[in-house]
Amino acid sequence: MARTPFIGLTGGIGAGKSEALRALERLGAATLSTDAVTHELLDTDEVRDLLVAELGPEVAPDGRIDRGAVAARVFGDDERRKWLEGVLWPRVGTRVAQFRETAEDLPAAIVEVPLLFESGMEAVFDKTIAVVADEDVRAGRAAARGHELVEARTARQLSQDEKAQKADYVVRNDGTVEELEIKLSELLAKLNEDGHR
């Protein structure tokens, strides 16, 4: 039985990494978003109680974590940010490991990790993919979602060029979803070819 390639997917804000993840799922890959895992973790009683104890009851006004309130408390406070990462990242890592165990005999198992290189997680993957797009395209997409490409929001992230230099594969996403899917289909084929050498 061929081993399923285990791939880390990243990209800057507005580059289209979530779109790429959905396209890869349509192409038959098993997919996991660490952002989605983080959101699920924030909905657990265990993590809520830890956050309330550290950050105060205002972060869970109705018994549920208010992500905006958490961001306001940890944003710009390195100590608190590190504390929060210490709560979330090991739990996310456990979920990623469980996902890898269950993804067998597939074209690939792909995990979207926005801070892939920044968190040092690239070492757990067989290969990494960076999704990149022109700055104008990224800014337009981010604005359409209500994000600006704010310096503060991206300050902790490597630049798009740095992510591309560190990644094993780079996929440009300046065009349509269909064009992106064709590029990703070709990349999946290449990953499986390389894996069988």
In short:
The protein is an alpha/beta fold and 197 residues long.
Could you characterize what this model shows?
This protein is an alpha/beta fold and 197 residues long. 52% of the residues lie in helices and 12% in strands. It has 9 helices and 5 strands. It has helices spanning 17-26, 34-42, 45-55, 67-74, 78-102, 135-144, 151-154, 160-166, 177-195; strands at 6-11, 30-33, 109-112, 127-132, 169-172. The protein has a 5-stranded parallel β-sheet with strand order 2-3-1-4-5, with helices on both faces. Helix 1 packs across helix 9 and helix 2 (34-42) packs across helix 5 (78-102). The longest helix is centred in the middle third of the chain and has 25 residues, at 78-102. It is globular and about 50 Å long.
| Gyration radius, rounded | 18 Å
* Arithmetic mean of pLDDT: 86
Count of DSSP E strands? 5
Summarize the helix and strand pattern as letters.
EHEHHHHEEHHHEH
Q: What structural class do you assign from the helix and strand content?
A: alpha/beta
Percent helix: 40-55%
How much of the residues is beta strand, in percent?
Answer: 5-15%
Could you give a short account of the major beta sheet? Answer: 5 strands, parallel
What are the low-pLDDT stretches, counting only 5+ consecutive residues below 50?
149-153
C-alpha end-to-end distance? 14 Å
What count of helical segments does DSSP give?
A: 9
Q: How would the global form be characterised? A: globular
Q: Within the largest sheet, what's the order of strands?
A: 2-3-1-4-5
Oligomer: single chain
